[in-house]
Structure formats: C-alpha cells, structure tokens
Amino acid sequence: MSSTTLLFFLIFIVITLIAGSIFYFSSIKNRFEIRKYSSILNLRKSIGLSIEHGKGLHISLGKSDLNNIHGAASLVALETLNQIIDQSILSDNPPVTTAGSGDLTLLAQSKHQNVLIDKSSSTSDFHSHAYLSGATNLSYIAGVIPPSSDEDLSTQIFVGNIGPEIGLLLDATQKKNHFSLPATDSLEGQSVSYAFSDDALIGEELFAIPAQISNNSIFKVSLLIQDLLRWLVIAIILFVLFFKFVGLL
User: Fold this and answer.
1) Tell me: the pLDDT tens digits for 93-103?
2) For the chain, which terminus, N or C, has the lower number of CB atoms within 10 Å?
3) How many CA atoms within 13 Å lie on the side-chain side of 74?
4) pTM (two decimals)
C-alpha cells in the first residue's frame, strides 16, 4: 500500500468517526428524514400478517462470503435476519433461513439458537431453521427453491449477493402467491428482480433495509454517513476537474 493510499484511507476513517460521533450523540440526525420505501413497508405488513395467520417466513442471505467485495451485502442480509427474527419471535413458526456460504450459515444458526434460548425452548432443532442450501451458485439456488414454494410460508425475503438466478426463486414465489422482497447487489440480479417483482429494491436501497425495519438510531446514522461520504467524493471529483480545467493540475 502506497503512502498516498494510506493517507487517504486514514482521512476516510477519521472523517467517518467524527461524522458518526456528531450524528449519533447530537440531535442533528433528527433534522434528516430517511425516505420510506414502499417495498419495505409492505414487508413489515407481511411479517405482521404472517405471525397473525400462523405462517412462516423464509429469508435467504445470498451466496457471498464476508471477506470479499460482496461482504457488505452479506452483512446487510445478516442484520436484516436479526431484525426479522426479533420481530417474529412470538410466531409459532420461526423463520427459515438459507444461505450459500458457510460463514453466513453459521452466523444465522447462532442467531436462531440465541432466540430459542431466549424463548426457553430446546436448542436441539435450531439447525433445521438455518442451513447451507448449497456451496455453489447452482446448488445454492436448487436448495432455496423448495422453501420458496412451501405452502406453510407466506413471505419470502432474498437479501444479499444473488445473481440473475434470483428469477427462479421469484418465479417459485409468484406461483404460490407469496410476498417476496428481492434485494441484491448484483446488477444482473437487480434487473431480473425488477422484471419479476414490484417490490424489488434497486441499487443502494439494499443498505437502507435495517434502518427501515428497525428503530435503532445507529442504522439511521449509518445512512447519513454514507450520504455524507458520497457528497464528499462528488465534491472531490468536481474540484479535481476544475483544477484540471484551469491548468493547476
């Protein structure tokens, strides 16, 4: 890593920490309103109806490990799982979780086990609610399709890194008339999701899911920091272009 790259990285970390502290510990964050997405509002309604009708939910966390470029989408998927499990803890049917990555599966199983412990239930069957559906792209999709068409499940959530094969999952949910929320960081997956579902989340909307389904202020602060850094990058690009234009660079 060059000294210039290291300097920019340190500046980025410092700005993030300062901005995060200001937003979190002050009332400035209350002056900003996060735009509500109708897809996530529909998801919250569907979760409530699933609990009321005794139906279950299926959430698939994608197929990417945490230690690569798609790790951010996987982290969002895990936090989404955490929030959904916490909100559906009173349901008779715990959410079914599938993943195409070993580390995501272990973390999901840990969350399910903690919930069962909180409910003073036996922890012997928690593996049946969170499992590795497949270690490759095609085997992952093949393993996710059965719960996507399960009659006892009424809500399907696909969050994380999922490619164009997400169309197979959405097709299965449509045939069963299930509510489905697709949110992926794959451009091909987003295009297919947009064609198959009216509730598809596109682009950076993926990262707004935890803030939309939870009242925890830390998620709102995270979105505000993302917007701040985005405008900072735009300003730097414009300044560089201006200095290039006037011949100072």
Assistant:
1) 778 899 998 88
2) N
3) 21
4) 0.82
